[in-house]
Write a structure and sequence with these properties.
Radius of gyration: 21 Å
Order of helices and strands: EEEHEEHHHHEHHEHEEEHHHHH
Structural class: alpha/beta
Number of domains: 1
Number of helices: 13
Strand content: 15-25%
Shape: globular
Number of strands: 10
């Protein structure tokens, strides 16, 4: 039985000159319509205490300003549902995504952006017909504008000894979400399963590099040791701290034949309230998650508008979603869509 233990925290390897830092955040946990999205990002920075906001201050900023820097912050600060807000969010999401693309070009296909290594379970996307109507990217910028922003980022990354190792989203369409909720009977458990899928992805790629991962806190939860022990049974889970606004753990690979002993594969995970204020990687993950959800909702609205003229779009949040469900009766009937694929059960 793998149970978390409270142990004396280990220090980083003194010989390590660079540090892998990762972040996770979600968008769309509360709406009635549309997907849940979880964004993630991972960087290599020149030292463990390095602050990417400071390293990249010539090209990135925490807040909107008169300068044309890329805003990396909580998506609620970056995005507003107007042309200026769309431009800010898209520039952030696609310029960083372009760092991982060939020749620094951002993805032109929304499918490529939404459905990467952590795509929805097979079959779920095809059951939601609006994902066939995803828009081309960029949506509001010229492609050249995003390429220039990516090039400026890359120059600064090179100068500061940084690199983007990976970034992306885990999108969970409403039908898959409802099926999971039915299976687990618990929204918190369903969300944890998705978060742990992303954590597993990061473990598989970076555990030998001793990554530091920050996750925006999940609801009001304070204790994650048991969840981590269950999701990573091959590790020993060390509890560093468990407090209302900050819980931290170390996962170390175990040798079952000899009992627990420390191996090079290790991962440090912190769950923090307002994680996007503490971690550049979480802030970027927040923007990626939000952009993914907004792109998905644009396809959703386009699909149902094609079935009913003058149907006003919805962002899917509960008050307006109820309005939309009343307004869209003709489109819903014409689509013959299974309600389980349309409306979230919780």
């Amino acid at each position: 039985m793998n149970t978390p233990r409270t142990l004396r925290p280990q220090t980083s390897r003194s010989s390590q000159r660079t540090q892998v830092v990762c972040g996770l955040d979600e968008a769309g946990l509360g709406p009635l319509l549309g997907p849940l999205t979880i964004g993630y990002s991972a960087f290599e920075v020149p030292r463990s205490e390095a602050d990417p906001w400071k390293l990249l201050k010539r090209v990135c900023a925490r807040k909107q300003g008169k300068q044309s820097r890329i805003v990396v912050a909580d998506s609620k600060q970056v995005f507003s549902r107007n042309p200026r807000g769309w431009k800010r969010l898209e520039r952030t999401a696609l310029s960083f995504t372009g760092l991982g693309e060939r020749e620094g070009r951002p993805p032109r296909s929304a499918r490529a952006f939404l459905f990467g290594p952590l795509s929805p379970t097979a079959g779920w996307i095809d059951r939601h017909p609006w994902y066939a109507e995803l828009p081309k990217l960029p949506r509001v910028h010229e492609a050249g504008t995003i390429e220039l922003a990516t090039a400026a980022l890359q120059r600064e990354f090179d100068l500061q000894g940084m690199s983007l190792l990976t970034s992306g989203v885990r999108l969970m369409p409403a039908g898959e979400l409802n099926a999971s909720l039915e299976a687990t009977g618990n929204k918190g458990e369903t969300v944890w399963q998705q978060v742990s899928t992303v954590l597993r992805h990061l473990w598989d790629r970076f555990a030998e590099q001793d990554p530091e991962i920050t996750v925006d806190v999940l609801g009001g939860r304070m204790r994650y040791g048991g969840l981590l022990a269950r999701s990573f049974p091959e590790t020993a889970v060390e509890i560093v701290r468990e407090e209302p606004e900050h819980s931290a753990y170390v996962l170390c690979e175990r040798d079952e034949a000899e009992g627990t002993r420390w191996f090079p594969r290790r991962m440090r995970i912190a769950f923090r309230v307002k994680g996007e204020d503490h971690s550049f990687a979480v802030a970027l993950a927040s923007c990626l998650a939000k952009y993914a959800r907004e792109i998905a909702m644009e396809a959703f609205n386009a699909h149902f508008a094609s079935l009913q003229q003058d149907l006003r779009p919805t962002a899917g949040y509960r008050g307006d979603a109820q309005r939309w469900l009343e307004d869209a009766r003709t489109a819903i009937e014409a689509s013959r869509i299974d309600p389980e694929l349309l409306i979230r059960s919780r």
